[in-house]
Amino acid sequence: MAKVAFIQSFWLEKLGIMHISSMLKRHGHQTCMAIYDKKSIRKKLLAFKPDIVGFQCTTGMQGWVYEMARFVKEEIDKKILVLVGGAHPTYFPEMIDREHIDLICRGEGEYPTLELVRRLDAKRDFTDIENLWVKREGKIYQNPMRPLIEDLDGLPFPDRELYEDYKFIHAAPYKHSITSRGCAYNCTFCYNHTYRNMHKAGGKYVRRRSIDNIIEDLQEQKRKSNLETVLFLDDNFNLVSRDWFFSFLDRYKRKIDLPFFCSVRADSLDDEMVKRIKEAGCYWIEMGLEAGNERYRNEVLKKNLKDEDLLRAGSLLRRYKISFDTTNMIGLPNETVEDAIYGLKLNARIKPDVAWYSIFQPYPKTELGEYCLSEGLVERLDRDSVKAQFHTTSPLNQSNIKELENLHKFAHVAAKMPFLLPLIRLLIKLPPNPLFLYFQRFTYLIFYHTKYNRINLRRTVEETLVALKYYRDKG
Question: Using alpha carbons only, how large is the chain's radius of gyration in Å?
Answer without folding.
Answer: 23
